[in-house]
Design brief:
By secondary structure, this protein is α/β, with parallel strands linked by helices. The protein has 15 helices and 11 strands. The chain is about 45% helix and about 15% strand.
């Protein structure tokens, strides 16, 4: 696939998503980056910003098999993975597959379930394999989890385990719309062009096939990342482990995610090489959820985003 074809394909996907999602340009771009990199993403924002709608729209654009799990405090691991039941007619145990057996899984409000249930996704997210009653079952190679979560300050939420957060390539923030976008959204809600109605009527066309996605990913492999930029990205991640405000920094998986996301960002921008600005553009969604601040830093009002901004300013930029 040529760079022009890459750009045309991505633009068609953005246009299709934009029929449903008003504004949120950065969130749309980051969801596409996670998809291009065949990785999982965590979408965070207060209720009502369209987190679930964005994930459902992306699945429609991809034409993927889609399933949704609404996480609740009483959700059990078997409700996600499935279980075996005894078939009286056949006199044998048979597998009843859970919703994890799909291509695109929406884990809605993932932080409303306890850690035991959240961790049931770990093996599926990392290995694309599910183990049920000591038997392993393969998931599709394009299996992708897009999870939504409310801010941890919201009532009835649980913090995600660090091991699980590290499996998400990106944490995509969704913010309040500006005044013009909210007016447009409110006006559309009074007509048959409401975002939810458009999606329910199936008016969002599939823009990417499995072959298209494979070609897009092959095009990414042609984007050049210099050794100096690899060292820059790794140095930035390692700096999070020695910062005085950080108790637990980002691990090696973060370095890999940072470079992959920067390469996808550069390709979307129409370039066949990665620049330091590409790494800086994706640093916050890649790293923020992986850092754990010291309790004394939190008491002083230090925020993870501020720590990352400082580290980016202090990191020597390669020429």
């Amino acid at each position: 696939m040529t760079p022009d074809q890459f750009q045309t394909t991505i633009e068609s996907a953005v246009t299709a998503i934009g029929k449903v999602i008003i504004g949120q340009e950065d969130a749309i771009r980051f969801t596409l980056i996670a998809t291009l990199c065949n990785q999982h993403a965590l979408i965070e924002g207060v209720p009502g910003l369209g987190k679930t709608l964005l994930a459902r729209t992306l699945a429609a654009v991809l034409g993927s098999d889609f399933k949704r799990i609404q996480f609740t405090p009483d959700l059990m691991p078997a409700d996600i993975t499935g279980t075996t039941v005894f078939n009286l007619q056949r006199n044998e145990f048979s597998l009843v597959k859970g919703p994890v057996f799909t291509t695109f899984l929406l884990a809605d409000e993932i932080n409303r379930a306890p850690a035991k249930t959240q961790s049931a996704l770990l093996e599926a997210m990392q290995e694309r394999t599910v183990t049920i009653d000591r038997e392993s079952y393969r998931l599709p190679p394009d299996f992708t989890v897009f999870a939504t979560q409310n801010p941890i300050e919201s009532e009835g939420t649980y913090p995600l385990p660090e091991a699980q957060k590290d499996r998400f390539m990106l944490k995509i923030p969704m913010t309040w719309p500006d005044a013009a976008e909210e007016i447009r959204l409110a006006g559309r809600s009074l007509t048959d062009r409401a975002p939810e109605a458009i999606l329910q009527r199936g008016e969002v066309a599939q823009c990417l096939s499995v072959d298209d996605l494979r070609e897009l990913r092959e095009t990414l492999s042609q984007v050049v990342v210099s050794e100096a930029l690899v060292e820059y990205a790794v140095g930035l991640v390692r700096a999070t482990r020695t910062d005085d405000a950080v108790m637990v920094g980002a691990g090696p998986r973060a370095s890999q995610a940072l470079l992959r996301a920067a390469r996808a960002w550069a390709a979307i921008e129409g370039r066949d090489f990665v620049s330091p600005d590409d790494i800086r553009a994706v640093a916050q969604p890649v790293l923020e959820h992986r850092l754990l601040l010291r309790p004394e830093s939190e008491l002083e009002g230090v925020r993870t985003a501020e720590v990352l901004e400082r580290l980016l300013r202090e990191a020597p930029v390669p020429r």
